[in-house]
TrEMBL record:
Residues 264-477 form the UvrC family homology region profile domain. It comes from Algoriphagus iocasae. Residues 16-95 form the GIY-YIG domain. This is UvrABC system protein C. Pfam families: GIY-YIG, HHH_5, UvrC_RNaseH, UvrC_RNaseH_dom. Keywords: Coiled coil, Cytoplasm, DNA damage, DNA excision, DNA repair, Excision nuclease, SOS response. InterPro entries: GIY-YIG_endonuc (IPR000305), GIY-YIG_endonuc_sf (IPR035901), GIY-YIG_UvrC_Cho (IPR047296), Hlx-hairpin-Hlx_DNA-bd_motif (IPR003583), RuvA_2-like (IPR010994), UVR_dom_sf (IPR036876), UvrABC_protein_C (IPR050066), UvrC (IPR004791). The UvrABC repair system catalyzes the recognition and processing of DNA lesions. UvrC both incises the 5' and 3' sides of the lesion. The N-terminal half is responsible for the 3' incision and the C-terminal half is responsible for the 5' incision. GO terms for molecular function: DNA binding; excinuclease ABC activity. Residues 216-243 form a coiled coil. PROSITE patterns: GIY_YIG, UVRC. Interacts with UvrB in an incision complex. GO terms for cellular component: cytoplasm; excinuclease repair complex. The gene is uvrC.
Amino acid sequence: MEASSYTPSEHLSLPDQPGVYRYFNSDNELIYVGKAKSLKKRVSSYFNKNSGVNLKTRRMVKEIVKIEITIVNSEFDALLLENNLIKKTQPKYNILLRDDKTYPYLLLTKENFPRIFQTRKMIPKRGTYFGPFASVKAMNNVLDLIRELFTIRTCKLDLSPYKIAEGKYKVCLEYHIGNCQGPCVGLQREKDYLNDIEQAKHILKGNLGLAKAHFKSEMQKHAENLEFEKAQKTKEKLDLLEKYQAKSLIASPSIVNLDVCTIVTDEKSAYVNYLRVKNGAMNVSKNVELKKKLDESEEELLVTALIRLQDQFQSDATEVLSNIELEEPIEGLNLVKPKIGDKKKLIELSLKNALFYKKEKALLKGLNEDKKDRVIKQLQQDLSLPEIPDHIECFDNSNIQGTSPVASMVCFLNGKPAVKEYRHYHIKTVIGANDFASMKEIVTRRYKRLVEEDKPLPKLVVIDGGKGQLSSAVEALQELGVYGKMPIIGIAKRLEEIYFPGDSYPIHIDKKSESLRLLQRIRDEAHRFAITFHRKVRSKNAFGTQLTAIPGIGENTAEKLLSHFKSVKKISEASKEEVEAVIGTSRAKSLFEWVEKNKGA
């Protein structure tokens, strides 16, 4: 399927067919992927509607400079393609089902006398994977059942025929306790072993009925042959299988293969529960939260979650039960809202899980907000501050033996980093390694600007350092006339001592205190931010020094080259025409003569 490209003004010329559309911004960045029954009608709706469209959608539409489409055969195909594209590219305006978990699978290896074991890595050539399992417990229950029913080896030996024939293997403890029949020494035929594997595969696929029929047949054969001990052992396996099925049965066995997907929403999120049911047994239960991006409808959120969860858990169900109905049915997606019977009970069970998940998330959110408020209130109390420090700024310097001196300021709002407010500083007025003078310079520059722009001052200023750095920062605030308008402290690294201006002795906050941990986190973040910037500047200066050593290349030319190519290596790899376009013919000639001369040096 090839993609066709359009501009926003050409939306009326789009085909009236099902497909997927992709929006790009001026940086050629993919910002949204959508599916449509009619590409022309759906895409046009973004550009023709002036009212009833939320702010986020209007903002997205303003960014669109290019539209790409892919035509497919049906709306359901569009759904699948949309899911794959979103999963691969994660555009900023799409609903994202974020899940960092790596789910476990059971792997049936592709080898002589195959093994079955759990893994979280999928390497298709290794064998057949069953899963993923939503919980380790559910997976272990299946694996334990298989190991109780069949004697499947757990060793990693190479059991190819010639290896067994060499006679170098010996039976292990698993053989002596009856968990293995000794295929490594030729005591079990591969044909018999593979028969057990075939029955294990039925169980792994959820087809317990076929495994039960196999054991019933085996039991009857043993009874007819008067092999009563073998018949009893087979009966015990059959009882074990029926007991396992009874435990996992949550509906009528007549419910063969379907999915259940229910949804509840609030203003900002949707909470979805997904169940996968096979032969009346529930083998997957998963809750997910979706953050609303463009004020999406319940139907859109449900379908988005359903397609991605079916893909994630490799469902082949043709029927899906839900607590809502689609206003416009999607061909290929059989979504049903049952009114009575066992299917209605499944909906109630799933909805109960979704509602509990929503309540759990709300409670967790409340606890997090309480903790955040508690920590900054505790900090106010520990430092005897006049106001709750919901706006904290912290400063740090960075230099190595006076080279490339820089500084950083980080900002925390309501106890959380406000990354957009972070600032880097090149030290301009100080020569050499003078941390006190550097601190005074950056504090002056920061708050002079805030005063001139009439922006609010922080509720607490933190200086990374002891009394010397703190005194320098206080001098800066006094000269600006803002000293006393915001509390300021210094925090010394070695003993985590807190210094106040004018106090000879520091205070110590309890080492286990949440408020001290917050101060440490802010201080460490300022240090990290300064160090990162210093490395970048030092690296750039080193590149610049290397370039300015070339005859005919001065600081301005070196700056142009580095701004365009980013590194000396990329400059040396560039073509002559590319370099000439940046710095002209004569300088480019000098540069390439130097590069040629220093090759291999």
